[in-house]
Amino acid sequence: MEQGLLFVISGPSGAGKGTVCERILEELEIQLSISMTTRKPRQGEVHGVSYYFVSHEEFQERVKAGGFLEYAQVYDNFYGTPKPMVMEQLSKGQDVLLEIDTQGALNVKAAYPEAVAIFLLPPSLAELRRRLTGRGTETPEAVERRLGETRREIACMTKYDYCVINDDLEEAVERVVSIIKAEHSRVSRGTQHWIKRYEEEL
Ligand code: ADP
Ligand code: 5GP
Asked: What are the residue boundaries of the structural domains of the chain, listed by start?
């Protein structure tokens, strides 16, 4: 059985990662990994759907047990990708999508160079501010703090495989879908299977 592919999407807070990922799940057969976090749920966020919301102690126990593919401290909280689910899905041939911050993405790329990292960038800082404010989930201080991280995050972009500008949502979704499809057609992935099949027939 061929392994599934691992895709990572990151970008500044408010870039539209959650929105784009939701649409990708409608377009393609891909599993979104549900992260674990010590952050408190926002209104409407459901345990086991948005995140697994856990205590600091529970999170640290999992770190010690080696249960994360990657984890990082983002703002004041810890976020991590639970390892077993991702590995199981990949081994079943299922593609997996991680929506994680730049530190996590670079750690994943270092450990799994075959992972495909996509950076989602809003068309401008002014638009990023508008989206982050308009979402209404953060206090004005938290908005400023998140915007303040943008410079550091953008500096990481050169380590990514792709950059997609999220101006028009549908166009951004189409581009990410195209990237995922194109990655499946890479000669370096899975051609052995086809070579063998042809050899049997020739
Ligand atoms: P992130 O997950 O990157 O923090 P969200 O997906 O929560 O960002 O998007 C932030 C806000 O911007 C949301 O209110 C969302 O509806 C809006 N948004 C996302 N993509 C677009 C887009 N292409 N055009 C306009 N608004 C967008
Ligand atoms: P939020 O609090 O807005 O849901 O997420 C804050 C940041 O944490 C976002 O940049 C998001 O991509 C990132 N994040 C969410 N889950 C994970 C994870 O499992 N690992 C890492 N490294 N970052 C994550």
From this structure: 6-33+94-199
